[in-house]
Amino acid sequence: MKRIVSLAMVILVVLALSLSGATAEEDRLTIGIVIQKENGAFLDMRNGILSKLAENGYTEETCEIVYQCAQGDATALSTICNSMDGYDLVFCIATPATQQFVNLESDTPCFFCAVSAPVAAGVLTAMETPDKNATGTSNAIPVEDIFALADVLTPGIERYGLIYSTSETNAVDTVESCIAYLEAQGIDYVTSTVNNSAEVAMATEALIDDGCDAIFVPNDSNVQAGVTALAELCMEYGIPTYCSSATTVESGCMATIAIDDFGIGEKTAEMALEYLNGTPLADIPAVVVGADYVSVNVSMLEALGVELDGDTLQVGDVSYAVSYLGQ
């Protein structure tokens, strides 16, 4: 009898331990990170998110972190977002992934990173009052400041070429801001659209043939994927290129006023941590993260004969730190 009781006790202990382990496993958070297409900026944003989460104890040892990239495929992006419906929270990097996930109307909170025009993209109605179970960070492109930078580095530009894809809301919004600024300043411009990265070289040639003195590249993943060809053509013809991201500068464009991509990832994670600490998502306003330094491509500067040295550059009333890339 004693042996039976002892055996029963052992079984109960084993069951208790098993149930405890199962409960602990069930209590593990599942966090998703989704990107439509990888590039240097988006990967820095992802790493910023992971770094800030890790600082606060959210690592692969304490929770399940699932990172997936759609490799630019819209169908794959839809599949990935659907697979993350039901996670504890999801980080969506850039506009396409955010739109795809928000359109699911999921109960899973979405924290978006670097959506340049969240309201125009339809991922919330107002920055101050998130209403679609989504909030996050916006990297609104400072087009006026970038054109002011162009006036400093290559004064006298009479006609800009604007290249973008109409399928990307963020790019359309940025180009519309460019057009509004250029028209207000009485500066001529020509637009050229692409459907994919393979069309970037041809669109660039068309802008050059139209007599553009400079080309502006918005935050557009299709153009970014083909921007090396654009930069090579512009270098050949002596055309300065301004853009919206330090990653695009590293790919060959001449200059921009950029945000800290790792830092915007960290900021997005901080907002998610507020939620995990008990703040309702609707009480966490979306925020615009400002650009804070000038990024220049040394090879393009040299090819165009633009002289620049030193650690800072004065653009209007602001003195920016300068980051030299492509050396």
Automatic annotation (TrEMBL):
Signal sequence residues: 1-24
Pfam families in the cross-refs: ABC_sub_bind
InterPro entries assigned to the protein according to its UniProt record, in alphabetical order: ABC_transpt-TYRBP-like (IPR007487), Peripla_BP_I (IPR028082)
Gene3D superfamilies named among the record's database cross-references: 3.40.50.2300
Keywords: Signal
UniProt cross-references to PANTHER family, sorted A to Z: ABC TRANSPORTER, SUBSTRATE-BINDING LIPOPROTEIN (PTHR35271:SF1), ABC TRANSPORTER, SUBSTRATE-BINDING LIPOPROTEIN-RELATED (PTHR35271)
Protein name: ABC transporter substrate-binding protein
Species of origin: Candidatus Pullichristensenella stercorigallinarum
